[in-house]
Amino acid sequence: MTEEQILKAVSKSGYLFESEISKFLTENGFFVESNVIFQDPITTKDREIDIVAETYNDFSSGDFDRVSCKICYYFELKNNDFPLVLLTKLQFNPNTPEDIFKEVLTVPTGIKYDSYPAFTKHLYDHNQNFYTQYCSFSKKKDNEIIASHPDELYSSLSKLCWYCEKRTTETNELFEKMTSEYFRHWLNLPVLLLSNDLYELSVGEDNPKLEKVKYSRLLLNFHYNDTPTSTVIYVVTKDYLKDWLLEMEKLESIVRTQMKNSKIK
C-alpha cells in the first residue's frame, strides 16, 4: 500500500477531517477533548462524541469576580459525500417545546438576573429558520440516487441529543447540591459539522426551492430517560466554522457583560 493510497483512504474515512478540526480548535484557544466516551442508555455499550470543545474566561485583566460564562460545543463530524438537506420549517405555536437550548445556570443570592434575554433570546432569532426534518442521499445498485435517513447520520444526531441532555442535566443537578456563591451561565450546544454541502428546502406556492447555506438549525425530538424532550442542533459547514464560532464568541461576550452588570447592581 502506497503512502498516497493511505492518505486517500484516511481522508475519505473522515479521520483526517476530525484531526484537522481538533487542531484548528486547539490553535484558536479552545479546550479540546477528542473521542469522548459515554455509555449508550439502550445498548449499555460505549459510544463516542467526536469532539468536545469549550471556551474559557480571559483572566488577563484580573477578572476574578466569580462570573463564569461559556459555551461548550459537542461536535459530531460528517465527511458527507452527498449533500444534507434540512426541510419542514418549524411553525412556532403554544405546543412548541420551550427548553430547546440547554443551559446551566446558578445565580447567587442577592443578584437579580433575567436569563432569557441572555443566550435564549438571541438563539431564538426568528430571522433564522429552524427545521424539523432532514435527509441525505444514497446510491442504489442501479445507480439511482434516493433520499433517505442514513443510519450513520441518525446515529450521530441521536448521540448529540442524548449526550448534551445528559451533561446539562447532570451538571445542573450537581450545582443544586453545592453552594451558590458562583455566578454561572453556560450553554451546551450540539453541532453537526459537515465537510461539504448543506441545503435548506422551502415549500412555496410553486415548486420546492433549494438554497445552499453555510449553517442552519435542526430541531430534534427524542427521549431522555423515558421523558420526551427536544433540542436544537446547529448544522455547520467546515468552510464556515471559523466565522460561526466568532459569532458565538460575540454572543458569549454579550452574555458575560449582562452578568457583570447584574452583579454590579
Question: What are the main properties of this structure?
Answer:
265 residues; 5 helices; 12 strands
Task: Tell me about this structure.
The protein is an alpha+beta fold. The model has no long low-confidence stretch (mean pLDDT 88). The chain has one domain. The chain is globular.
Provide a short characterization of the protein structure:
With 265 residues, this protein is an alpha+beta fold. The chain contains five helices and twelve strands.
What average pLDDT do the residues reach? 88
Largest sheet: 7 strands, mixed
State Rg. 20 Å
Terminal residue distance: 67 Å
Structural class: alpha+beta
**Unreliable stretches covering 5 or more consecutive residues:** none
Determine the strand fraction and express it as a percent band. 35-45%
- What is the helix tally? 5
Total strands: 12
State the order of secondary-structure elements, H for helix, E for strand. Answer: HHEEEEEHEEHEEEEEH
Shape, per Cα inertia axes: globular
List the helices and strands and how they pair.
Blueprint (H helix, E strand, L loop, with lengths): L2 H11 L1 H13 L3 E9 L6 E9 L12 E12 L5 E6 L12 E5 L9 H8 L7 E9 L5 E4 L2 H26 L6 E12 L3 E5 L6 E4 L2 E10 L2 E11 L3 H24 L1
Parallel strand pairs: 3-8, 4-9, 8-12
Antiparallel strand pairs: 1-2, 2-3, 4-6, 5-8, 6-7, 9-10, 11-12
